[in-house]
């Protein structure tokens, strides 16, 4: 996970760095810590998304509907895999190991980047 996904808006980059830290912890944790850390990741994502949504609301971001929708989809997906992982740990592990980061990175590069570009243009960091 060494890709450069920094967008140049500190509050948002910090949330993204924290997410990556939690994700790497889950990847290497002991089995008993898997679900609690997975839940931490979900809680962190809720805060991360609501922070971005607040920025979009206060700055009247032109594309907020699509961005909000994608947040909802991503969060629902995480919750779905978390619930599945309770009964089928391997299912949860494969989501964490093979899918979660790619999904996150795609959102940052395709969706969050539009927001940060907008904020920079507005001079609203
Ligand atoms: Fe984000
Ligand atoms: Fe976002």
In short:
It is built from five helices and no strands. The protein is an all-alpha fold and 125 residues long.
Fraction in beta strands: under 5%
Q: What is the N-to-C order of secondary-structure elements (H for helix, E for strand)?
A: HHHHH
Termini, distance in Å? Answer: 26 Å
Counting H and I runs of at least 4 residues, what is the number of helices?
Answer: 5
Low-pLDDT windows of residues: none
What ligands can be seen in this structure? fe (ii) ion
Assigned CATH architecture: Up-down Bundle
CATH fold title: Four Helix Bundle (Hemerythrin (Met), subunit A)
Residue-averaged pLDDT, rounded? 95
Q: In terms of structural class, how would the helical and strand content be classed?
A: mainly alpha
Biggest sheet, in brief?
Answer: none
Question: Radius of gyration from the CA trace?
Answer: 15 Å
The figure for the number of domains is 1
CATH class: Mainly Alpha
Q: Per the principal axes of the C-alpha atoms, what is the gross shape?
A: elongated
Helicity level, as a percent range?
Answer: over 70%
- How many strand segments? 0
């Amino acid at each position: 996970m060494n890709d450069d996904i920094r967008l140049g808006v500190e509050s948002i980059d910090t949330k993204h760095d924290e997410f990556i830290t939690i994700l790497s912890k889950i990847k290497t944790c002991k089995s008993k810590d898997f679900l609690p850390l997975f839940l931490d990741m979900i809680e962190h994502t809720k805060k991360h998304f609501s922070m971005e949504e607040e920025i979009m609301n206060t700055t009247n971001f032109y594309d907020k509907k699509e961005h909000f929708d994608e947040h909802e989809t991503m969060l629902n997906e995480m919750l779905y895999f978390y619930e599945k992982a309770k009964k089928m740990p391997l299912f949860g592990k494969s989501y964490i190991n093979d899918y979660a980061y790619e999904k996150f990175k795609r959102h940052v590069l395709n969706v969050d980047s539009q927001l940060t570009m907008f904020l920079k243009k507005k001079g609203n960091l």
